[in-house]
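FW: tagging you since you asked about this chain on Friday. Here's the raw sequence from the shared folder, copied in full. Didn't touch anything.
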Amino acid sequence: MASLLLEDVCRDLRDGALAQRSERIRQIADAIVAIYEVQRSIFQVRPDLDYFKNPPSSESLDVPSSADAAGHERVASTLARAYALVLDSRPEDAAALVSQHLEHEPSTFHKQWLRYELGILKNENGT
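HL: got it, structure written out here
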């Protein structure tokens, strides 16, 4: 919940009037504090998840990552260009760019990510 509030407040802060920004900054601080309180509660129940107290062993660091770094880079690059188009008042072009990438993306995970972002672009920009 706190992370959703933080996302909404950040968006409002970015898009809101100057007079509202002070209150928004306070709300951001409140949300961050709430996130850390939740994290602290989790670590009390599951101290093994606290990487500061239990850093990963050197053996686990030798395991190759299962993350598709190239896929992440492809999607992140496309989304950066798409949101630059939105900032340039070209939301239709942004949606078209993401749709085009979606058609050619080989990774199922990254296709889901692109569909999610495309939904946001369409909902928030009326495209």
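FW: The chain has two domains: 2-61, 69-125.
HL: agreed, and The helical segments are 2-15, 18-45, 58-61, 69-87, 91-104, 108-125.
FW: great, closing this out.
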